[in-house]
Batch of 2 targets.
Target 1
Amino acid sequence: MYSALAELEAQLPTCTACDLLGISRASVYRWRTAKPFGPAQRPVVSAPASALSPHERTEILAALDSDRFADKAPEQIWAILLDQGVYLGSVSTYYRVLRANGQLRERRAQARHPPRAHPVLQASGPNEVWSWDITKLKGQDRGIYFDLYAIMDIFSRKMMNWEVHSTETGELAKNFIEQAIARNDGIMPTHIHSDNGTSMTSKSVADLLTDLHITRSLSRPKVSNDNPYSEAAFKTLKYCPAFPDSFTTVGEAASFSDLFFDYYNNQHRHSGIGLYTPASVHDGTWKYVRDARQEVLDAAYRTHPDRFIAGPPQAPRLPAKVWINNPRTKIESSTDSHTH
């Protein structure tokens, strides 16, 4: 095709030759101006005259990696050297040298905190695991708060003791736990769980639990889910319709707490324990309450069996076990994520 076109172009214009051969004139021009295949040749750029020499780069890197400056930022190093009359390069030059050597990262020494194992506690009856915490109750003056100490049995949900103080100390916490055991007829739990507050981790509390042979359990830092029972009880308290906006004195806060927790223990039907009261679960009288409920349900079934499609109704029972961080839940969640 090229040879025929060349012969015709010797005698005719290119456009006429293209028409005779049935080819596009634009295609001919593209063929003639096409660049050869292969990677483009990049022009060789020479290093500027002001570029650092290999020796200077080595000198900068040695200074940056020295024991003296290994944990300092390039800006700090530049300023310190400059104050000593030494100039190795600009701050941006320091960063370029670090980048070229794969060291552009956090240079300062970092604290390493090993991961805290999450607490795993199980209770299959009262007086096995108690949980306690302290919450703030707002005073009437700005910045004034009262501290409500509260400890509960996680199986029965009974509040074993509660006290209101104007401050939070390890000694008050120690006396508070001792009073809780006294109010429980001297019966001690196997475990006492709490978060990592200063009172909970105080030496006074630690020594007391050691002397009483009670195992102390602590939540992970900043993980409120590790202390769910106490957190839920405080939410129930503060969402109570009668909960005031503020308290005038410690005595007023204590009086309200007495009224609330007496109601909570003896009248509140708790959804987590079959809608029985915490006090009845703790002392075992819930069984008689359940029998009475079952008699009422049986009578209703005998009167109108057609209204109970699923069969005879059953009064709710207690959960067999309660957990703080049930490990089976984590296993099931992991299995579900793999199957979906």
Target 2
Amino acid sequence: MRVLKKLNPVALAGLMAIGIAAQANPLQAQSTEVLTVAGGCFWCVESDFESVDGVIEAVSGYTGGRTENPTYKDVSRGGSGHYEAVQITFDPAKVSRERLLELFFRSVDPTDDGGQFCDRGESYRTAVFVSDAAEEALAGQVKAEAQQALGQKIVTPVLQAGTFYEAEDYHQDYYKGDSLVFTRFGPKRQAAAYKRYRVACGRDQRVVQLWGDAAPFAGGH
């Protein structure tokens, strides 16, 4: 306090302004938003959106159901009500929520209410999860625009967000993993197994069939 008393009012005001700016800038730098979507296999959705400039990370998980702390087995066998979903953390100064929603609708088959591509069942359905009225209105708007562009009915629902449970560690970044896994094609590294699965499941083929040149991630990641 004795040091501050010796400063004149102008100098003191300057120091206070510098202190406030120093505190504000880190907060601005850390400003992020979250979008949660379900688009079939979460490995593929995670891979797609981590390639988007402005996306900080995409985390695979489960949401929308009744079972608390579900495991992959709980969700994949059905009855939990959960979707395989991905929580996308992004910098809104680099990419907007609206743009991410546009990319999402054009990266799935939103006309299919029974699953996605070769993956069938409730956990593989598509959905957009929202946290408030503004997010709901925006998702509805982008959905309507996508439906008009596609010329077919989009059945992907816009749902209220609930608890998001992160999937097991081995599901995270599966598309670029180096662990050895056993597949029906024999033992392969995760990244190779993922690419083989994506092609065999027909994801990109169907998306291109629906969206043509507007398909943003065709070719796989």
